[in-house]
Amino acid sequence: MPPKQLSFLPKLSVTAHREHGGSIRAGKRKTARAIDPKCPMHIVLRSSIARGPLSMLHPKNRDHVDRRTYQIAARHGVRIYRYSNVGNHVHLLIKMPTRIAFQRFLRELAGVIATLVTGAIKGSPRKFWDGLAYTRIVTWGRDLKNIEQYFIKNIFEAAGLFTRKAKSAGLRVIPLVGWS
Fold first, then answer.
1. Beta bridge partners of 91
2. For 91-112, what is the mean pLDDT?
3. What span, in angstroms and rounded, lies between the C-alpha atoms of 143 and 16?
């Protein structure tokens, strides 16, 4: 068997793009969503009409949205590390077992939240989400710590608190437990 040809060109990374959806590629060619089952993923589902009684933080919606999010994750084997319901958008930091499980989770979650909040029935023409769900693969280390800070900031903003006041009050971010 002849020896393998050595390449002196730099290797191209298959995971060159680590984010997808939102306004990242609006009006551009479609590409596959980057997924890495070994790394956590940050997901944002945004709705500009989710205000007032249609807000996901409205008293009649909040508990239903939160409970169903965890139920759907458990059904598809998705592990939720962080979750933040901000009213007009939802942030999730998850780890999924496979691409198929992730696709099923995201499809069901988007449909169920839209149905719960609007009270719509299947097949109604009302649009709830602004666009595709934004996803980004989070790398370990500094990137993970930054996303934790971002989740804490969103939780304070959802509660109507300013993050500067929270930091000056001595509040700290609790590190994640149970990463595998």
1. 44, 84
2. 92
3. 16
CATH number at residue 92: 3.30.70.1290
pLDDT tens track for 50-74: 888 888 888 898 899 999 999 999 9
Q: For residue 96, count CB atoms less than 10 angstroms from its CB and return exposed for 0-12, middle for 13-18, buried for 19 or more.
A: buried
Structurally, how many domains does the chain consist of?
Answer: 1
CA distance 100 to 87: 28
Cβ atoms of 147 and 176 within 8 Å: the answer is no
**Given a cut of 60, is residue 101 above it in pLDDT?**
yes
Written as six digits, the tokens of 87 are 């009213």
> What's the angle, vertex CA 94, arms to CA 93 and CA 96, rounded to 5?
160
In a domain, 102, yes or no: yes
Q: How far is Cα 101 from Cα 106, in angstroms, rounded to an integer?
A: 9
The torsion of the CA quartet 110, 43, 94, 111, rounded to 10 degrees, works out to: 0
Residue 131, in any domain of the structure: yes
| Maximum alpha-carbon separation in the chain | 70
Is the whole model's pTM more than 0.90, yes or no?
A: no
Is 163 domain-assigned? no
